[in-house]
Amino acid sequence: MRPVLVECVPNFSEGRRPEVVAAIAQSIGRVPGVHVLDIESDEDHHRCVVTYVGPLEPVLEAAFAGVQEAVRRIDLRTHQGSHPRIGAADVVPLVPIRGITLEELVPAARRLGERIARELGVPVFLYGEAATSPRRRDLSFLRRGNFEGLQAAMDGDPERRPDFGPPTVHPTAGGTVVGVRPALIAYNVELGTDDVEVARAIARRVREAGGGLVNVRAIGVKLERRGTTQISMNLLDYRKTPIYRAFELVAAEARRYGVEIRSSQVVGLVPEDALVECAEYYLRLDATWSRRQILERRLMELEAAEAERRPTDPAPGAEPSAG
Prior knowledge:
- The chain has 323 residues and is α+β, with helices and mostly antiparallel strands.
- 36% of the residues lie in helices and 22% in strands.
- It folds into two domains: 5-180, Formiminotransferase, N-terminal subdomain (Formiminotransferase-cyclodeaminase, Chain B, domain 1); 185-283, Alpha-Beta Plaits.
- It is built from nine helices and eleven strands.
- The strands form two sheets. Strands 1, 2, 3, 4, 5, 6 and 7 form a seven-stranded mixed sheet that branches. Strands 9-10-8-11 form a four-stranded antiparallel sheet.
- Helix 2 (56-73) packs parallel to helix 3 (102-120) and helix 6 (196-206) packs across helix 7 (243-255).
- It starts with a strand and ends in a 14-residue tail after the last helix.
- The relative contact order is 0.11.
- It comes from Geochorda subterranea.
- GO terms for molecular function: glutamate formimidoyltransferase activity.
């Protein structure tokens, strides 16, 4: 049986100080058994995303280490960015990759959240599959009001009180959201306008809550340093809503305002199948096409078959077993 593999994709509220981003990533990568696969940061969003994988317990230890480093180094009282956030370590999602289910990860998320609250004094909220009420499954609900409005939200709404720790905002690190979710795609489309109200109007029509695409979360944000705006999306299930469909709807809504698309961006890692779907759509590949025509896939199949046929070599210096 192949070992359990878990992905974690923590988002931190720092995208302008490379040394802080590096320190957070290094604190994660130092945990034995953990492999950091990707580090993304954005100055306008003032945010970084670290993607790493490993067995369950090392992944939890690395998540705590990353949150601890963020709490030590990030002060949200002086933080301004275009992306919503309530915490220095804003959200810490656990994602099942192999040998473990969403449901089986929920107790792990609870253990991690309880430890963060107990040892770091940061209030923790559970979301996604780990949420303790239907409304709290949605990350946007827990982020409403941002860091600046978090204390008032906790004081005024029982649904906004933390699952772990006292209902008091950490003075510099805010709160942290910990949860369990399937793999998603973070996908942004940059618009040829600096009018953020246009971007927000487009985002409203694209996201599921506004009658747009199923399993899509979208916001319109201003990119001050680039002098433009962006539709920032999470595609929660690319099999139901592929990347090309999200792109085409953004483009169609933008045309209503006479706005062109400048570029698009994948944040972090993306499943290969999601990009192949885009190629199939835009190239209009016919029924003779098969994904087994992808060279790298066939080579991987060949290498796997050869590895299975290859006899196991004895350890160096080992005596052959008696016949």
